[in-house]
Specification:
264 residues, alpha/beta, Endonuclease, Chain A, 2 domains, 9-stranded mixed sheet, two-stranded parallel ribbon, 10 helices, 11 strands, 18% strand, elongated
């Protein structure tokens, strides 16, 4: 029987780790010789950009050494992972956060880590919408890699000029040349915006990431502060109807001229 504290850590691991990486790690553990020690086993695990999940799995392996067979540990993690995946499919909604952690009894992953995982696994298309973007090299590297493997990338960004200075720097400046050249980039022209009594135009203030059949809606801009220091909340939705409605909304804004294509 698995000790309760270890079972709790496995439960937390499957909530934080990307399922494809965790399945690959479990396959390695399941095929490992029972004579191999914990450190040697950890060294054979597949790489991941989720350092927190990698550290958590390594800790679980070390604590299981001598008390639980590697095949048994692999099976236990897989059962927990499958149960969590089924729960997510039924719920269609997952809480995301950045900043002070939610109460421990609430399953939640970091907004930035979810974006990294979804972009790394993207197979068809990525749509990112943000007001601000700054110092996000890890995310832009992931987008560049997605483009190189044939994923369609679209960005809807706020521009300083179109916002009449309400944004201090174009969000576009955060993206490298490969994305400016190969992604489709859109903005909201000033002439298409309503103005308030002070003459200030409306802001392109939405924050969304639609990646294949999932969508992240959150308060977080694509900035280092939002990913690391701010208190931000969001949701990951796996509801195909909602995903298609969001895609259709931005497509209607594009086709109707509310959003205009930026050309380098």
């Amino acid at each position: 029987m698995i000790p309760l504290n270890l079972a709790s850590d496995i439960d937390e691991l499957v909530q934080r780790a990307h399922c494809q990486w965790l399945q690959a790690a479990c396959a390695v553990m399941g095929a490992a010789s029972e004579s191999i020690d914990a450190e040697a086993l950890i060294a054979t695990l597949p790489p991941t950009n989720n350092a927190g999940a990698a550290h958590a799995l390594a800790s679980i392996i070390r604590r299981s050494e001598g008390t639980l067979a590697w095949r048994g540990l692999s099976a236990s993690i897989q059962v927990c992972s499958f149960s969590f995946a089924r729960w997510k499919r039924e719920q269609h909604v997952e809480l995301l956060w950045t900043g002070p952690a939610p109460a421990s009894q609430i399953p939640a992953r970091r907004i930035d880590q979810v974006l990294y995982d979804l972009i790394a696994a993207a197979g068809k298309d990525i749509l990112l919408v943000t007001f601000a973007a700054y110092k996000i090299s890890r995310l832009t590297d992931g987008l560049a890699a997605a483009i190189n493997r044939g994923v369609k990338v679209r960005l809807v960004l706020e521009f300083e000029e179109a916002s009449l200075g309400q944004l201090s720097m174009d969000a576009l400046n955060a993206f490298p040349s490969i994305l400016k050249e190969k992604a489709k980039i859109y903005y909201w022209p000033l002439e298409k915006r309503e103005k308030n009594v002070f003459g200030n135009p409306g802001k392109l203030h939405a924050k969304a990431a639609v990646i294949d059949e999932q969508v992240v809606l959150s308060s977080a801009n694509l900035t280092e502060d939002a990913f690391s220091r701010n208190l931000e909340l969001g949701l990951l939705l796996s509801n195909s109807e909602i995903v298609e409605r969001i895609k259709a909304h931005f497509e209607s804004l594009r086709s109707g001229g509310t959003l205009k294509r930026w050309k380098c």
